[in-house]
Amino acid sequence: MTNIPDIEVRDLSMAYGDFVVQRDLNFTVGKGDIFVIMGGNGCGKTTLMRALTGLQQPASGAVFYGGEDFWNVAPEDQTRLKRRLGIMFQGGALWSSLTLAENVALPLAEYAELSPARIAEIVSFKLALVGLAGFEDFYPSELSGGMKKRASLARAMALDPEILIIDEPSSGLDPLTARRLDDLILELRDSLGATIVVISHDLASILAIGSDSIYLDADTHTMIPTGNPRQALASGDPKVRHFLTRGTA
């Protein structure tokens, strides 16, 4: 039996009108990987995330989930494939008028036929997984930046997705809080067996958690395959090493 990757991107190009953001992207994300999409500001990282998650149709190319061509299946099959994904947006995207418990319960109430008691049990478990046990009745405005990120991660995991896509997890966090979030991502990968895609330009985070990666080059508008970021730092493409050392190497 062939080992089908969780995600395969083939000849993907993304554009806004005539402006090509990135072109000819080809990469695979294996089961259990923490796959990092890295690059500087404006290189197209978030646009690629949108193409991966069904928010923006690419100009050309294909995105496969478990061998199924996401952009060329029926709408009901797209919905089914989306259920495999949990997405943590850069700003957290928590509903400010809802408590943490209500935020995490939203996808469960929408997609899972469960009793309110069972939903409450799952919500408490997911919040405990990210270190927020006892914060069910808090509102987002009552939390620190790192706690909001963890709450957003709990919501992304609500439906037990096979794949987590995390956009700029350490953005806006102090170094210690960012490191704790990196540790949490590693723990979740190991305990849940999830495949994780991280969009990031934070060097410490990239080197701490990445098992495979690509670099989106803003100059050539295409990718440089980089493999394990720590190996890329030592012996990778000069442009990637320049990025990973902030230009000091």
Describe the structure.
This protein has 249 residues and is an alpha/beta fold. Strand 9 and strand 10 form a beta hairpin. Helix 3 runs parallel beside helix 5 and helix 6 packs parallel to helix 7. 37% of the residues lie in helices and 24% in strands. The protein is globular. The protein starts with 6 loop residues before the first strand and ends in a 5-residue tail after the last helix. The chain is built from nine helices and ten strands.
Question: Which structural traits does this protein have?
Answer:
single chain, 249 residues, alpha/beta, 6-stranded mixed sheet, 4-stranded antiparallel sheet, 10 strands, 24% strand
Strand and helix map with partners:
Layout: E1 7-16, E2 19-29, E3 34-38, H1 45-52, E4 60-65, E5 68-69, H2 75-82, E6 85-88, H3 100-111, H4 116-129, H5 145-156, E7 163-167, H6 175-192, E8 195-200, H7 203-209, E9 212-217, E10 222-225, H8 229-235, H9 238-244
Parallel strand pairs: 3-8, 3-9, 6-7, 7-8
Antiparallel strand pairs: 1-2, 1-4, 4-5, 9-10
Helix pairs in contact: 3-4, 3-5, 4-5, 6-7, 8-9
